[in-house]
Each structure stands twice: as C-alpha cells, then as structure tokens.
Amino acid sequence: MNRGKCNTVLGLAGIGLFTTLSLVGWGCAGHGQYTSEQISAAKEKMAVMKSATEWEMARQAFLCGEFDKALKGVDRSLALAPKVAKSHVLKGRILMERSDMEGAIASFQEAITIDEKHIEAIYHLGLAYERLLQRDKALEQYTKASELEPQNAQYVIAATELLIDSGKVDEARAFVESRSEAFTNTAGIKQTLGHIAMIQGRTDDAVALFNQARLLAPDDLTLIEDLTRAQITAADYGDAEGNLERLLSNEVNKDRRDLRLLRARCLIEIDRPLEAREIIIKLTQNSDTSSDVESWILLGNLSYQLKDANRTRLASQRIIGLAPDRPDGYLLRGLQQRRQGQYDAALKSFEEAVSHDRTGNSLILRGLTHRDMGKMDLARASFQQALERDPQNAEASQLLSTAVASVESDS
To answer: Between the CA of residue 41 and those of 46, 81, 82, what are the distances in Å?
Structure first.
C-alpha cells in the first residue's frame, strides 16, 4: 500500500475513532445525569408514599386510643415530609389526648403556618384554647372556621356553645340566629337554639325547636331527650311520658335511673300513681340506687298520697338516715303521724324539720298541727313565722288571716 494513502486512511480512522469515543463519552455523561435526576425524583416520591403510609398507620392507632404508638408514627411521617399540614394536625390531636396542650397548640399553629386556611387545624386550635379556658382565643378560631366554611354547622355550634358556657346567652342567640338561614334543615342548629330558649325561660319556644330538630333527625335519642325535658318543664307530662317510654325501650337507655325517675314523675302528674310506684319501688330496691335520696323522697310522697302507711314510714326513716340535714324525711314522718292523730309526735317531727328548712313549709305544717289540737294562738304564731321566712307564701298568708279571724271571733 502507498504509505501516503496508508497514513491518510489511518488519520481518517483516528479521527473517526476519536469522534466515536467522544460521542460515546458524551452519551454516557448525559445518561448518567438523567439517571441521577430520576433517582432523586423516585426517592422523593417514595418518601411521600412512606410518609402517607406512616400517617395512615398513626391515624388508625390514634382512633384506637394507642396514643404512644400514634405519636411515634406521626413523627416518622413528619420526618419524611415535614411540610404536610394534616400531619401536624394529627400530631396536635394526639398531644391533646396526652394532655400536652402546649405541644398541641404548637402543632396546630405549625399546620396553619403551612396552610393558613387549613380548617381542621383552625378548629382544633380552638378546641385546645377552650380546654385551657382561653375562651376569647377559642372563640376567635371557631368564628374563623365558621367564616371559612359558612355551610358547616359544626363550627357555628362550637362558637355558640362557647358563648353559652361563658354566660353570654344573648350574644350566643344573636350569633347563631344571624347564621341560621343557612341551616334551616340542620338538626344541630335547632337543638342549640332550643338550649338557648330553655336557659332564657322560653319553654314553649324550646319545645317547638327541639321538636323541629327531632323531625329532622328522628333517630337521634339526644334530641328526643332534650324535647322530653323541655316538655316536662312546660308541664306537658303526657307527651313527655310517651317520649320517656320510647327512650327507655332503647337498649342504650334501659338502665338509666334518671329517665326512669322522670317517667315516674310524669306518671304521677297524669294520674297513674300505681304505675309510678312500681317504678320507684324497683329503683329503691336496686342495690346500685338504694342510696338515692330523691327516689326515696318520691316514693315516700307517693306512698303518703296512696295512704300506704307502712311504706311511708319506711321511706321517711330511709330519707332521715341518708340525708339527716334535709327536712324531707322529718316532714314525711310528721305528716304520717299527724294523719294518725299522733299530734305530739308530729310536732316533734315538724320542729326537727324547721331546723333544716329554709322555706316556710315546716312552719305551716307545725301551725296546722297546733290548729288540729285547738291551740290557735300557737298556730297563728307558726303561720306568722312562715310568712316572715317566705313573704311570698300565699298559703301562709291565707292561713294567718284565717287564724287571726278565728282568734278574734273566740275573744
């Protein structure tokens, strides 16, 4: 081969080899850069996925009441993705359950820093402030939440109940009524307005509002109970008794002593005393409630009404034993003694009641016993003392007038 041609060919070959190697080299460098970016993105994506998994596991532990486990899980979630607002909210809720209120507030505030409109963080921050009795701060958060989600009744109710607890009932009513048009079919709002009406003494309004709430949520037993208590206050004992029967037929309420006692009171008012007595006897025979003074008082009064002397005496003894500083037991014992003509014994019982009674009732009964015994001067003195103790007592006033007239006619 001609050496010149050979050198030319080798030169060209060298150039080609350099070019090829150069291209391969650049190609590998480009491929390496692309792979690094992909790896970084994949790692970030994997971290987010792991964070979400840790958050969900922490949430499940929180719902199960495993707060230590939940806290460790949410901390792992935040370590992987620290700028996720809902993770800080979950941590705050866990810390609240652990009574670490300062830590909870810091977590909720961090969530709000990440997302200033994070409604759950705002609401739970309000809850935390309320638990610390920082009511003004709590109200600010509840109000902010209600403004961010004006269609969510939960935040309006929270703010209203806080105002009620603070004694600002009129302000609470104005607050919820200014927003009630958006919740015309919301049972919770009607219920809250019913509570306000009860506090303000607007019993008929309360009954109407609780009834509206019950119609909107017919299976909510708390609404039926609120309605029932309002009906009792309004002296609508027939409807109240029907609702109490329904409440007590539910498995959740069947053993509730307070509801059974309320039903007995309603039965007495609608002239079904025998049914009422059976309920109360069972209450006083139950070992868990046998020390319940109110049940014994109701049983004693009902037994006296039904002229059941033995049970009246038993009830009076039990009441005196359980509550010696209350007048009820002595009054009941004195009433039974007076009925049986045991006037001296009755006077002693009423004297004992007077020492524990801030009203004029014991003095009136003492005066009546004196009148039974023909001692009108002593009767008049008792009625006078009863009226001095309770100037608005119409019965004492009438009895005093009668006693005065009787004494004057005798003289």
So the answer is: 8, 14, 17
